[in-house]
Design brief:
Layout lengths: L2 H20 L4 E10 L2 E10 L2 E6 L2 E5 L1 H12 L4 E8 L2 E7 L4 E7 L9 H7 L12 H6 L14 H19 L6 E7 L5 H13 L3 E8 L2 H14 L4 E5 L13 E5 L4 H12 L4 E5 L16 H4 L2 H22 L2 E7 L10 E7 L5 H14 L4 H5 L2
Parallel strand pairs: 8-9, 8-11, 9-10, 11-12
Antiparallel strand pairs: 1-2, 1-5, 2-3, 3-4, 5-6, 6-7, 12-14, 13-14
Helix pairs in contact: 1-2, 5-6, 10-11
Keywords: Methyltransferase, Transferase
InterPro entries: Methyltranfer_dom, SAM-dependent_MTases_sf
GO molecular function, one term: methyltransferase activity
Length: 385
């Protein structure tokens, strides 16, 4: 290649340098193909010990980015053309050059769809999924939705729909954070972290937004499992911590707190951590409600509450109602929606809270009045400070 084309090539390479630094957690590989006549000479580079490990011409060498680019450019002088692919999660940057021109192109990795079998196609045809079979196959296989062959499992279509609907319900919240260079999500009582993995995929590979995930759980086994899954997927932008939600303090700004089916007061712990960390949005789907069941009293309703099922349902309503009101008191706009059909699970309410102001005295006053009226002492109030 001539000097003019090499100079243009170097300009594109230098523009790529900042991206390589900012997106190091998402980097997968660099592929380079030189061509001389009809012969092709291929090399591939991956990250090793924070350096680029290039395998080319039967040799393997480590380079800093500047050394790597200098070598690639110098080597191009010996060939007619170059095809250089920088591959990260969700995006490939293709730089092609010869003696006439040098071009750069950004390619969406999701444009290449894997073939979907007839059974899977028939099961998902009625919904436009946010996390699609085909582009998301590696993820969906890892979390157990698909078989190794890429077919949807008979007993997992409901789970797939639930997870995708969760993404749908918070998609707007994510997009409202578009002004941020990167979004940090804290998954409280994360369990196997399926939601974190799905959101990680969606934010980075569909929305093309940088992100970072922290999963917290008291179970050492599920933390180990989540770490292994992240390793299998190559999701370097995740950490999983075995710690109590009440004692944990994030070491970075938190944008979104999520928690799915955290049992009883574990949901309160997630909400409290969200408020204490000044999260811009909190999304929880509560599970069982035990704490207030034996606390609350309201004599006027005894003719109804003498029935155990009514007493339990009212405790559920009171628990989530007070949670929502207290969040409003701390400056969040709160909406409560049905997450999925009650036919799937009766624990199907989602509480969505978005920080809008410092506090809301009216909501706090209403909270304390209701707390006194029913004679209850919710955990959330004790740990929210």
């Amino acid at each position: 290649m001539n000097k003019q084309s090499i100079a243009k090539l170097n300009l594109f390479f230098m523009g790529l340098k900042e991206r390589c630094i900012e997106n190091k957690d998402f980097f997968k590989s660099i592929e380079v193909v030189y061509k001389s006549g009809k012969k092709e000479f291929k090399g591939i580079a991956t990250i090793k010990d924070d350096k680029y490990n290039l395998n080319f011409k039967g040799m393997s060498d480590l380079y800093t980015f500047d050394e790597f680019i200098k070598y690639i450019s110098k080597e191009a002088e010996n060939y007619d053309s170059i095809k250089f692919k920088y591959i990260e999660r969700g995006t490939t940057i293709l730089i092609e050059g010869d003696n006439k021109k040098v071009n750069i192109k950004y390619i969406d990795n999701n444009e290449t769809l894997e073939k979907i079998d007839e059974y899977t196609a028939s099961q998902i045809k009625n919904r436009d999924y946010y996390v699609k079979v085909g582009p998301a196959n590696d993820l969906l296989k890892e979390i157990g939705i698909l078989t190794k062959e890429g077919k949807i499992k008979n007993d997992k279509i409901r789970k797939y729909n639930q997870i995708d609907h969760f993404v749908e319900l918070i998609d707007k919240l994510i997009k409202e954070l578009d002004y941020k260079d990167s979004i940090t999500v804290l998954d409280c009582a994360c369990g196997k972290s399926y939601l974190s993995f799905v959101l990680n995929y969606y934010i980075k590979e569909v929305l093309k937004k940088n992100c970072y995930f922290i999963g917290i759980d008291y179970s050492e086994n599920v933390i180990k499992s989540s770490k292994k899954m992240a390793e299998n997927l190559g999701y370097k932008n995740m950490e999983f911590i075995n710690e109590d939600l009440v004692s944990y303090t994030p070491d970075r700004d938190i944008d979104i707190v999520i928690s799915l089916h955290a049992c009883d007061i574990a949901t309160d712990m997630a909400l409290g951590l969200g408020v204490r960390s000044k999260a811009k949005a909190i999304i929880v789907v509560p599970c069982c409600h035990k704490e207030l069941l034996n606390q609350y009293k309201f004599d006027e309703l005894n003719p109804i509450l003498k029935h155990g099922v009514f007493k339990a349902r009212f405790a559920d309503l009171l628990t989530d109602g007070l949670r929502s009101l207290l969040l409003e008191g701390y400056g969040y706009d709160v909406s409560v929606v049905e997450y999925i059909s009650p036919l799937d699970t009766p624990k199907n309410l989602m509480i969505r809270a978005v920080k809008k102001r410092e506090n809301n005295k009216k909501a706090l006053d209403e909270y304390y009045k209701l707390k006194e009226l029913f004679g209850v002492n919710p955990t959330l109030e004790k740990i929210i400070w």
